[in-house]
Every structure is written in C-alpha cells, then in structure tokens.
Amino acid sequence: MNILRVYIEFGDAVSQVSFTEEDEDDERQVSIQYVYNLSVKAKKGTLQDFSEHDEQILKQFFKDLAKPKILMANPPFLKLPTSDVKKMVKRWDDVPDRFIEKRSGKTIHENLAKAKLFFELEFLGEQSSLSAIVEAPDGKRKFWMQVKDSFSSVGNEILIDRELLNLDLTVPAELLNKVFAKQNPKLPSKLLAEHLPALLDNRLDLLRGPAVTHEKSSDKLQLRIDEDGANIRIQALNANSVINDLDANKLFQFRLEGERFIVKDLRSPEMEAMTHFLDSLPGTYQDGEMRIQGLTKNIMALHKALKKVPNSLDLRICKELKGLLKRESIDSNLVVNDHSSWIEFQSNFSVKGQGIDASSLRNVSKDQSVIRTRDGSWFIIDEASLTRAQNILDETLNEKSIKKSASTASTMIDKLEALQDGDFSETVAALKARLKSDDQRILQIDESIDSILREYQKDGVSFLSDAWKYRVGALLADDMGLGKTLQVMAVLHAIKKVDDKKALIVCPASVLSVWKKEAEKFFTDLKVQIVRGEKDKRDDLYDSKCDLIVVSYATARNDIESLSLLDFSAVILDEAQQIKNPTSQIAKAVKLLNSDWRLAMTGTPVENRLRDLWSIMDFLNPGFLGSLDEFDEFSGVQNLKESIKPFTLRRRKKDVAKDLPERIEESVMIDMDSGQASAYQQLKRELKANLKGNMDIFAAITRLRQFCCHPQLISQHEIASAKTDYLMMMLKELNDAGHSVLVFSQFSSFFEEIDDLLKEAELKTFKITGKTPVDKRGQIVDDFSESDASVFLLSLQAAGTGLTLTKADYVILYDPWWNPAVENQAIDRTHRIGQDKTVMAYRLIVRDSIEEKVQEIKAEKQALFDEIVNDEEFMAKNMTRDELISLLD
Prior knowledge:
The strands form 9 sheets. Strands 7, 8, 9, 10, 11, 12 and 13 form a 7-stranded mixed beta sheet that branches. A 7-stranded parallel beta sheet has the order 31-32-30-34-36-29-37, with helices on both faces. It is of the alpha/beta class. The protein folds into 6 domains: 3-107, no CATH class; 114-210, no CATH class; 215-321, no CATH class; 328-419, no CATH class; 429-656, Rossmann fold (3-Layer(aba) Sandwich), CATH 3.40.50.10810; 664-886, 3-Layer(aba) Sandwich (Rossmann fold), CATH 3.40.50.300. Helices cover 37% and strands 24% of the residues.
C-alpha cells in the first residue's frame, strides 16, 4: 500500500504545498501533474494502491490541482492561502502522519513547538509602554500586532517567520486584539498601576520588563472561622487583610514604587491549602467570605475539612467551634444515691465541661456524631463514648434519673457499671490490703524529664510508678508509636535514684540500639550496656559497671544460666508478645529472672489466643490468673478484663496522640486474568488430590498464597501476575507524586522476583528481610529516611516490629497474613509520633482465592484482640482440620 504525504512550507498569507509518494522502497517527491492524475482517479473511484484516507485527501485537492494554469506550468508545489491550508490540516486530525511541516520535517498535529505569550512593560516617566509579545522556542519575538493575522483560534496555531507554532494562549484572544491589534499602547504610569490587573485579565505573572520586579509574598495567611447566629462565617486573610477573590490567577498585588512596577505573588502551598479547604465546604466564597448553614451535615463537612488544614496556616476559630478540631469524648457522670429502701440513679452528660441535654444526645446519629451543648458550642463526638452515653440513656429509660427498689437495683447497677466511664467495682480486696503497706514508696520524676512528656505519657509514668510502688507487675499495652520506651525509661531513671541494682531490658534484636539512643537523648546519666557477641564476651558485659543491660530475646534464652544468677531492680520485656507461647523456651527462661519489679510492653498482648495474655500475665504476676489448665477453662471474658484492669494500661492513638494524623486503611480486591485464574484452579485441584496429613494442608495453603503473590514463586511457567502488575502501577504512580512507600510481604523470595521490574522502573529501593544482618538494618533505615521518594521492601516478620519509618506515608501489605496484630504492627512502622502526613495503608487481595479466606481468619483474630484489651464483643473460635481444608475450596 502506497502512502501520500503533504509537505507544507507556511507563509504569512500564502503557503507552498508539495507532495511525496512512499512505497515499500523509498519516499520521493512527485509532480503536481502526477498528483492531479491521482486525484482524477480518486474522483472516479478507480484509485488503487492507496488508502481511503489518501483518496479523500486527493479529492480535497482536486479543485486546486485542476486549474488549467497549474496543469500548464506543472510547478513543483501549489501556492494556497495559509488560512485555507490550516483549515485543511485541521480536518485531518485523525491522520496525523500525512501533513508535514517542511522546514522542521515534523508532523504538524502532534509535534508543533510551543510559543509563549508575555507582556512587556517599560517605564517612560509619566507614561509607560505596554507590549504584547509572542516568543518562539528559539527566542525569536514578535509583537502581537505583527502575527495576529496568522493566529488561528482553532488549535491556537500561529506563524512566526514562516514557522507554524502552537501558542500557549493564557489570556483571551479578544483581549489581545482589542488592546494590541494596531499598536502597543502608551498609558499614564499611575493609571497603569491602578488598572493593569484588570486590563491583563489578572495575569500579572506574564509581565516582564526592566522596570518590573516580581516578589513572593511572605505574609502570614489566616483562616478565620466564627459563629454568626445560625450560620458559620469563614474568611481568608493575608496579613490581616481579607482576601476577596481566591482565583489562583488573581492572587497578585500590583503597585508603582518610584520608577518600578512591583508584582507581589500571593500564591503559595498555604494558599492552595486554603483554597482546597474552602472548596471542600458546602458554600461559595465571594466578597471576602463564605457562609454555611449550621446544619449537622455542614458541621461534619467542616470538621473533616479542618483535619486537613496544615499547621502553616494561622487558624483562628471561635471558642464555640473549637470542638470541631478533634473528636471529643462524652463524660458520663453516674451517681448512685442509696435511700435504703430505694435507689436513685442520676446521669449527667457533658463534653469538655459543657452540659448536654438528653434530647440532644438522643438525636445524635453515629455516622454524623455532631452535638451542640447547652451553651451553643459544637463538638464532634467519638463513637465509643457516644454509644456508651446513649446506652446509659436507654437503660435509664431516657430520663436523667430513675428510681428502683432495692430488690431490683442490683440488675441496674450491673448494667450501668458496664457502661459508665469510671469503675464502680472494688479491686481485688487482698491486693488492696497489701498495696496499702507500700504507700511510702514514692518515685520522683525529674522536672527536666517531666517537661518533655505529653499529658498521656505523664499518666503512663504515674501508672507505672504506682505499679512499682506496690510491686505489681504491669502491662503497658499502648498502641504502637505512643512512646512506651520514653515512659519506661523515665520510670527506670527514677528507680535508679532509690535502687543501685541494674535493670534488665529484653527486646527484639532489631531494637537493641533504640534503648541506648533513648538514654543518650534524654537520660545521659544512665549508662546502658548492650550485650551481644561471643559467649565469653557477654558474660564479662553482665558484670560491667552499668545501669541498664539490654539483651535480645535469643541472648536471654541462651544466657539464662548466667542471667538467673543476677538480681535486678527491674526486668522489662519489650515487644512482650515474644513470650506469648507459654511452652516456648524463651517464655520459660524469662520467668527464671530475679527482680524487684517486672514490666511488659506490647501494643498487641493478644495476637492469636487468650493463652498469649496468660503467658505475659504469668510472667508479670505469677499465679494471678491460675495455672494454664485452669485458664484454658476460663470463659468469663468480661470478668477477665476486669481482673487484669489494675495491672494494665491501654491507650489508643486516636484517643491520646492528637498530633498523629488518622491512618486510612483499604483492601484492594484484584482479579486474576483468565490464564492465571485457570492455573490457580488447576494448582488447587492438584494440591487437594495429594492431601494426607496436616503438614500437607499447611504446605498447600502456603503454595496457594505464593501463587497469588506471583505464580513464578512456585512455577517456572510464564504466567502473568495480576497482583504484581497492580503493585508496580501503584509504586510508579506514588513515586512520581513524590511519596515513599513501605511494601510488606511474608515471602522474601517475592522481592527477588520483582527486582528487575523495580530497576526497569528506576525506583529507588531499600530492603530488609530475615537475611539482612541485624547490625546493618539501622543504617538501611537511616538511608531510606534521608532519601528522596523511594520504595522500602520489608519482610513482614523481620521488619514488623522495632523500626521507625515515618519517612513513608504509604504502606502496601502485599499478601494478607493470618495474624491481624502483625499486620497492624507493620502499618505502625510509619503511623507513629513524628509522622506529619496521613498514612494510607493498602491490603492487596486476590479475589476468589485463598487470600479472601485468610481475611476472614484475620477478622476473627482482630475480634479476639479487641475484646480482651478493648470493649468490643468477643467470640473465640479454634479452627478444625475440616475448616483448614475448607480454605482450599
């Protein structure tokens, strides 16, 4: 099939058009007579060896070719009006390779170079000259009046020195033709200073010239939010002056100073954030303010928008609306008055000391959680306290007080005790009696240390100090990232003042240096000794002069014979879930350690079973929960929670770390293509056919999970991985946007599988797996933290605990793991104090695969964790062999 191409040499008024014909061998110029003959055949429908597109192009040129004067002269090119040529070219947008700009040799439609428009201002004294100038890529400049006739509004094409360019038209052409069509105007300088912004459609960023100075604004931007009757008024201010128009192209100030025109650019990331804030609200910003009605849905929208306001914006919000900045809890004050024969129950509700009417509380919906107090203040309420308060209201028949006979009061007491904020119940009587004798044991926290603690951390230190005072083993079960290490170090520092013995810290190998660094940062008078290396060297270190000894769990297990001979002031287990298996060697070993006080730290005291909690509590307070056999028969989960309450402190991030942004988690379901899905089903049939013992079941489950990650983890056949393709798409997009990403997987072999893909995509990558030496991991983390946008590949088990990776604001859990607590720990590598960005966590799940079933198992384990340490309903369930096999269905 031959191809006809049209070469155009543009002129201001007339352009030259020539033709070439391309066959399999070469491309050659053809005469006008030849093209005419082809056009005749095209008209008759007898044209051969050319496409339908070429046939239509030839028909279009027929009239121009058929002129006798043209045929007689048979010139090498046609001369046609430039305006007609442009229109002709525009008609063939869908065939971009047929029309060529002769001078550059480039196709016209897709490769036109860009011309820029700007305005030049020259100060001439009382008057100033204003010019509109079009600049070609090679620096050639033309006044608008010189090139306006060659400008085509269709495609914004313009000719400069016979070169067709695409003009980046930043102001309306009508404005240019109105002001600059005949001349570059000269206007009074003072008048220009007043009216130039309107004259140039506020595009002062396009203004140039020796008399023009551009400067960025350093003024403080401010958002002012006030209550105005039934409405809310919002104003944007710059240097305490109201901003009337927030259009990005109008955010300039223009003035004349002496002989210079000053353009002040108000645009900034803060201004962009302010604009986004206002755009997200149900109102319109005009004449310097936005007003929104005080409706529940509008208040909720304002709350969500306020969460995204950066600290760099000066936020001024009236006291009646400050409750929208963060979720608050409802205080439920329940008073029981005993009148002998009858009991009166009184309930009062408030938020931050402001009373709430029962009718207002009753009407709050959980999806909105907006309430207004008696004094007119608005608050966003956290769901847990709202549910609790509404349940109390329900139990009291929606009355502030209710009277019950003494004979029926006990049932009401039980119900209200479970709902109320405080704790009605007496703690263990024997324990209280013993603890009284230790009232004189007081720990003094240095003022310098107390000053760096957050309020909730001070509460934690107080809790631990009380536990030490009464020699009660304590469980610090705060969410990961809330500063458990700092709280414990503050207490150990105080203990050292009253007890010269060493303290022992047992932790994962990956966080040994964390304790030493914490001491070096805040507790410089404490000498910390990390014990590792050869056995002989370790024994010498145990006898060294120091205040704190820090060892890994493996070292503690291997050196228990030496460690059990020492007497410590305190033994602390960091990431205490390491001893969750009570029959493990490490669990048995740490219980042989001698100390005055024991402390366990973990954000996940229950990972899989209730036995996890028993093992930790048996280390802290041996025998308190009975023997393991007795505990296995225990069924009162609520009673268990009350039993361990005096020894346990548990705070969630969302409740206490208000400077930590909420994390957002999402499960992404990915469909396999037909080839992968077919191979998956075939693999599943083969595995089920060969099941014998339990080991075969677990092996089959693992192979199916590996196949979901990437078929080539278990097969040499070339089978595409839908999940890998999706992952690479995410990584490229996030990297391009400047984000750093953590990618977790249980299978480190998968990281080897995608090495080439990551290199091909030119993604900067870091990696920690079980094979990474422990002493190298800290440097890898530091390198990642100091790098530009990058990807960190992390083995779920090797890097799930002990690492701080707040550089990342995206987390990808590539394959679901059985244990929800382990996944949460992985996300918490970046979602912790110090993070200043919202953390997005994605779980990649292959649809119609074993991964969906794993999610169900994970949900059950999450319910177990929440029930024991939090307040959700619990139902434990062990998996039978049949249930395991069902995962393969």
